[in-house]
Design brief:
- With about 475 residues, the protein is mainly α.
- Helices cover about 75% and strands about 0% of the residues.
- It has 23 helices and two strands.
- It has helices at about 5-25, 35-50, 55-60, 60-70, 75-80, 85-100, 105-115, 125-140, 145-160, 165-185, 190-205, 210-235, 245-255, 265-280, 295-305, 320-325, 330-345, 350-360, 365-380, 385-400, 405-415, 425-435, 440-474; strands at about 305-310, 315.
- Strands 1-2 form a two-stranded antiparallel sheet.
- A hairpin with a 4-residue loop joins strand 1 (about 305-310) and strand 2.
- Helix 2 runs antiparallel to helix 17, helix 9 (about 145-160) runs antiparallel to helix 10 and helix 19 (about 365-380) packs parallel to helix 21.
Length: about 475
């Protein structure tokens, strides 16, 4: 390790204890000693999630080390806070996304959409098509998987129809990134922030949002991203070519090379349809156990027992896929954040914070505070960590002020996706790593996209969530 790297590591390592010490020495009147200690632990964890001296998952186990020391909690009590329904839910979602990509169904769907007559007749039309296809895929597959799969397709098409078109290549890469972010808003499994905020919403307020309710607002929010992102890319990165007369022929040729639909693809498609049916059944029939969290574990089990190649004894997913298909770092970050949220609530830290902030916040300001705080903090650290932090603080305040917390859940999940810096999220880092987008372009276009799409999410959430709730009740 070089001197500069070692110094950076030591500084990031010291950030956690320093944050803990600052909170512990602060005169927080009215806060119980154990709650004060837990708040310091929270500051330490957030600091390490931002500076990342160790993996996020490792940081998420700090409560095991610190809370028994000063929060009067035994190890068994701390361990109990990690048991949450979000664990099997996210595991199932991640493994389904892995199967979707592994068997090539996502690529087949993407090429089928691009082969639709008239979709990609011009440079601007191709960028719009890439944006929309990426969003559709991201509604059921993780944004990172969509970017890894779609970016090479988008760049190869641009390079074949317009060699040396640097602006168009950059626009195509960003169209995949922005489309994946938009599609993640549409469904609960679209991106991890959705499940995270829904879980925290239920835990703090007892407010439950169904799959149908989330999708009814999510589809509109995702669709609202299309004209905004398309116009940003069109005017900030205008394509070098106007017409592309033979684009469809190129896509058709590439689709033909995929061959017939495999049994593995049919299995994944069957599981996808079953998931959608199970998620929507509660809207037409009252089935007690069929909650939103129940469906992904069912899908996960089916993927491991449905044969993809009976002659060779291969299942749709196999043992090795369990290791490769689950984002363990993100998964345990979420679990650690949920555990800490439980601890802060139990010890009274959240009530104390809510009491201090309620006097300075109005109900009307809450959605804008939620959106602005999430956008700013996500640029510095993990979107999941930011979602945990902002939700943990603002949901109880919304309850106190009589403001609908479901609106805040929508806003926090919708503004937690960072696209302006290469280091702010795995999705933007992956897009940057393909080399088609320079840092300055990623920042400038991403900054405009972040500001405008965040305003759209905040404004529409304030309108759509109450309207759809009334519609569903009616």
């Amino acid at each position: 390790m070089g001197t500069a790297k070692r110094r950076a590591f030591l500084l990031s390592l010291a950030a956690g204890p320093a944050a803990f010490a600052i909170v512990r020495t602060a005169p927080l009147a009215g806060l119980a000693p154990e709650a004060h200690f837990a708040l310091g632990v929270y500051a330490w964890i957030v600091a390490w999630w931002v500076t990342r001296p160790v993996p996020w998952a490792v940081t998420s186990f700090l409560p095991f080390v610190l809370l028994p020391i000063g929060a009067e909690m035994g190890l068994s009590s701390v361990a109990g806070t990690y048991g949450h329904v979000i664990l099997p839910y996210l595991t199932g979602v991640m493994l389904f996304g892995h199967a979707f990509q592994k068997h090539g169904l996502a690529r087949r769907i993407a090429l089928a959409a691009l082969c639709i007559p008239g979709v990609a007749r011009s440079g601007s039309g191709l960028i719009l098509a890439i944006l929309v296809v990426s969003a559709l895929l991201s509604a059921v597959v993780s944004d990172l998987a969509v970017i890894v799969m779609m970016t090479p397709i988008a760049l190869s098409v641009v390079h074949s129809v317009a060699p040396g078109a640097t602006r168009m290549s950059a626009a195509a890469s960003l169209a995949v990134l922005y489309g994946a972010a938009a599609g993640g808003l549409a469904t609960p499994p679209g991106i991890v922030f959705n499940a995270l905020t829904l879980s925290l919403l239920d835990r703090f307020t007892g407010y439950s949002v169904s799959f149908a309710q989330w999708v009814s607002t999510g589809v509109i929010l995702a669709a609202a991203h299309f004209p905004v992102c398309y116009l940003i890319l069109k005017f900030m990165l205008p394509p070098e070519v106007k017409a592309i007369p033979d684009a469809r022929a190129r896509f058709l040729k590439e689709r033909e090379q995929l061959g017939p639909v495999s049994r593995g693809e049919r299995n994944v498609l069957f599981v996808l349809v079953l998931m959608l049916v199970l998620w929507t059944l509660p809207t037409v029939a009252e089935i007690g156990f069929l909650e939103i969290w129940y469906v992904p574990p069912v899908a996960m089990l089916l993927l491991f027992v449905l044969p993809a190649d009976p002659k060779r004894g291969e299942m749709t997913l196999e043992a090795g896929d369990f290791q490769k298909g689950v984002g363990w770092n993100v998964l345990f970050l979420v679990l650690g954040g949920m555990a800490l949220a439980d601890v802060l609530t139990t010890l009274g830290s959240i009530d104390w914070l809510a009491g201090r902030l309620t006097g300075n916040l109005t109900a009307g300001a809450l959605p804008w505070v939620a959106g602005l705080a999430t956008v700013l903090l996500t640029q510095l650290g993990s979107g999941a960590a930011t979602s945990i932090m902002v939700s943990t603080i603002l949901f109880p305040i919304a309850e106190t002020l009589g403001y609908n917390p479901a609106i805040l859940a929508r806003i926090i999940a919708g503004t937690a996706q960072a696209v302006a810096f290469p280091w702010s999220s795995p999705a933007s880092a992956t897009t940057f790593s393909f080399g088609a987008v320079e840092f300055g372009t990623l920042f400038k276009v991403g900054l405009v996209a972040t500001v405008l799409t965040s305003m759209v999410v905040i404004a529409l959430s304030m309108i759509l969530v109450p309207a759809m709730e009334a519609f569903n009740v009616g």
